[in-house]
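Sequence in, structure out. First:
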Amino acid sequence: TGTSAVWAAQRVPDGHISVVANNFVIRDLDPASPDVLFSSNLFQVAQRNGWWTPDPSSPNPNLLNFLHVFSPGRMHPNYMHRRVWRVFSQANPGLGLPADTGRFAEDYPFSVEVRLRRTDGRTLLTPQDLMWLQRDHYEGTAYSTTQGLAAGPFGDPNRFDLAPTGNMTLLRALQGEFPRAISLFRTSYSTVAVSRRDRPNALALLFVCQYAPDVASYTPVFVNGRGLARDWTSGSMHMYSPNSGESVSQR
C-alpha cells in the first residue's frame, strides 16, 4: 500500500565488497546522495512512528540512520556481525577489524576495498572466491567451529540451535551461543551470480548450490535457458532421493 513497508539501497563502490548477514548495514542515509535509493514513504514512516525527526541543528538535518531507526537488533549481535568481520577480513587481510563489536557494529564500514594477497597479482574477487567464502567456518581463528569439544573427534562444524530441553530453560539457553558460521547445516541453497560485461545477456550465468555449501557443489546454470533438468526441480532437505539435485549435490 506504500503506507508502512519501507526499503533502502546503497551503491557499493567499485572494487569493494559489502556483507548483509541477517542485519541492516546502511547507516547514514542522505536523501540528496546519488548513491542511495529508498522508498518514497521512508522518512514519513519514520516520523509518523516517532522514530526520527529532522535535526535543524545538524549541517544535514535530513540525514537518517537507517540502521538505528529501522533495525530491532538481536539479543546476540555476534550472530550477524562475526560473519561480516570474517568476510571483510578475508577480502582485505590488512584491515585489522576487531572480531568483537557492539550491537550495531558502529566500527565496521558499510563496505571494504578488496585487497587479496595473490601470487598472480589479481585483486578482484572471483566466483571461486565467493564459493570459498560461503563454505567458511572461521577456520584458523579462535572461533572455528571445526575445533573444540563441541566439534567432537572428527571436527564437525555443525552447531544445532539450543532449546529448552530437560532442565535447560529457554532463558538460560539464550545466555550462551556458539559462533554462527557462514556455511550452516540448515542452508537450503546458495548462489553466486557472475556479471560478465564481455558476454551477451544470453550467457548470463548463475552458480547454484543445493544445501550447505561446505558439503555440496556449485553447478553453473545459464539464466536464459529454456528449462532445467528434472533433478533440479525436485527434492527436499528432509528426504534423500538419487534423482534430486538437492541430494545429488551432496554425494
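Second:
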Amino acid sequence: SSSRSHAPGLKIVGDMLRRILVGATRRILPRASRTLTVVANQSWSWEFRVQEAELLAAEYDLPETLEQPRAIRDFFQPLGEYIRSGPTPLLDVSSVGSLRNAARTLKLLDDLQKRAEALVAEERAMEAVVLITSKWHVVGEADAQLLTLSAQRNWRDRAPTAGAVVAGLLGPLAWIPGALGINEVIMRRVDRYGGLSKSTPSGYDLMKATMNHHIVRAIYDRPRVVKLAEHYEVADTVELETLREAIADGSHCEHVKGRLGDEI
C-alpha cells in the first residue's frame, strides 16, 4: 500500500525529469538541414534559422556572465540588423504586408529594449533578463507566424532544476542540503548577471524572476505570443519607398504608432 501511495508522486517526478532531459537533449541532437546564420557579440551568440520558408527562428545560448546594461543592447542589436536584411518573404521589402510586418516587429523589439533598459536602471537586472529571454512568438498580418525567440538551455542551465527534483525524491534528509547547494549555485548566477544589488527595489520580484529563469523555464518555457496588429499600426498614407528607407535606416518608429501593452 505504501508503494501505491507514492506512485502518483513518482509519476509526477518522472514527468518533470523527462521534460528537463528532453529539453537538454534537443540542444545536442542533430537538426534538420535549414538555412542557418550565426551572429555573435561580446554578450550573446545567435543562430538564425528560416523554417518552412517563412518563419524566422532566432535561438541563443544563455551566457555565463552578463555585463549590464551592455547585455541588453547586445541582445537586440543583432536581431534588428537581421530583420532589416529581409530574411523571409514575410519580413522583406517585397510587398505592403511584409513591410508592415518588418516595421511592426522592429518597433516591438524597440519597446522590449526600452522596457529592459528601464528595469536595469532601476537595479532590477534579473527581471530584465527574464523579460528579454522569454520565449517570444511574434504573429503578423493574417495570423502568420513571423518570428520566434528562444533560449537554448544546456545541461548546466537545467542542472539546478534536475537537482531539486532528485533531492525531493530522496526525501527530507537529502532535500535540505540539496536546497542549500542549489540556492548557492543559482545566486552565483544571478550575481554574474548583475541581478544582486544592495538597493534592490523588491526582494519578492527578484525571487520570482530568479525562480522563473532558473527553475520554471527549465521545466516548461511558456511562449509569450504577441499579435503585432493588436499593438501597432502603420499609417496607410506612408509610401512604400518611404517605409523601405525607414526600415533600412532605423527610423521606422516615425511611421508606427502604438506600444507593447503592459499585460504582455
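Remark: The chain has a mean pLDDT of 85.
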